[in-house]
């Protein structure tokens, strides 16, 4: 009996020690990626160098095209449509060269999704959030959120569910549930670049403009989060999990990604506002003026660029959505941080962000056109036709019911004409194409089918729907009366020309304490978040200027102008009349 008891105690001790050991064993370290050296490193450098050269060459040709559009006043043609068309022509030219065995550019002309998500997309999303007209955006924040979050989810479920059930009925190519939902999510990302240009040229209702523009910005981030959610379900073994548990798991993952990323971006933007504001204040008797970056605009500008990209890297590093984080960071930094900067840095931020975003957008649309000849296609007519039908139907179910629902709570109603324009402006852009290449679908023919179908839908919406937006607006008579009287040749759809000739007055409107109180605090028409922001948040996170601050800002700008003029005078001398006019 004693021996038996001793054995039982030994077994118990071994079991306890084993369980304890499992609990205290540290998690394995992340594997270190192998570093290429020697010949492999040289080959990688050569390949990367040729890719960079090819990308810059394509971008330079596109910039020349945009310049020619502006020079010869071809303002009726949206730049995105022109760049995509140029990309198609360049792809055909490269294909002919490769067929003649004169060169081999297959690796360089391939669109790399990692480069898109790490380098090209963040500046585009940040600039979109940074350049929002905050008044119209926050006044319509409820409607924009409903369209971009719930509307995108509705569209994704309709497209994904339709593809799945049609595949089960052997009408189209068969996809499983998670792959169908992933495709429905990625194809729900709208990018109405051409439509927004037409809206600005025709001076349509600013509420309609903001609803379409604001929805497209948030919609991109929501679509990426939904696609990542579907990918996460695909990677996990869900065979033993019920449908209800799968739905709850997907919902939890989406809410974590959405609200976690939005909170991270908002927090980063507020920290940048605090740094740019409180560095001039006194705290516990200690003056912080010695770290005032406003006196050195180059350092201040560098700090703002760091904060512009910081939330993206942090969010991606902790498995959140970098796009969602950088979007909310851009909105917050524009609303609070920007007004704390020196006038020089404000102008530098606007023009730099616009230029970088323009170059990234141009590069993306050019490679989208190139992909027609560089991507290994798998084309199925029935799959493409049904996907286009489902995309249009999903957009309709998104816009019309939600608009009628919102009209019960809106003072400025969404008219049926506005609803139809919002449905028609659901163009697809480079984000669906990049997401389609980023999906880890097996077998390879499934990935090729999804990529080919995505390219066709994107080109269909850009060329057909984007090209038909202006005639449709003219037909249903929704434009401004002044724009209606203008000739077609006088309408300017060039986003680049307007971008270079204007500075957002909202971003340069620095108000003194008395002016801010008269313009915002005492207004009786502010409601909800607008009232809370004007009463508490804006006074806390933004600096109210004194007359001395405004005077110093004018001196700083005048000094820079005088320096520029002195350098100009050192060059070839002009006439005395020209000098007098400059003075």
From TrEMBL:
Subcellular location: Golgi apparatus membrane
GO cellular component, one term: Golgi membrane
Record flagged with keyword Transmembrane helix: yes
Alphabetically ordered keywords of this record: Antiport, Golgi apparatus, Ion transport, Membrane, Sodium, Sodium transport, Transmembrane, Transmembrane helix, Transport
Record-level Gene Ontology MF annotations: potassium:proton antiporter activity; sodium:proton antiporter activity
Main location per the UniProt record: Golgi
Domain of life the protein comes from: Eukaryota
Transmembrane regions listed in the UniProt entry: 52-70, 76-94, 115-132, 144-167, 179-202, 253-275, 318-336, 356-377, 383-406, 418-435, 455-476
Every Cation/H+ exchanger transmembrane domain range: 62-473
Pfam families according to UniProt: Na_H_Exchanger
Any Gene Ontology biological process: regulation of intracellular pH
Membrane topology listed for this record: Multi-pass membrane protein
Extent of the signal sequence: none
NCBIfam families recorded: b_cpa1
Family to which this protein belongs: Belongs to the monovalent cation:proton antiporter 1 (CPA1) transporter (TC 2.A.36) family.
Name the record gives this protein: Sodium/hydrogen exchanger
UniProt source species: Dryobates pubescens
Lineage: Eukaryota, Metazoa, Chordata, Craniata, Vertebrata
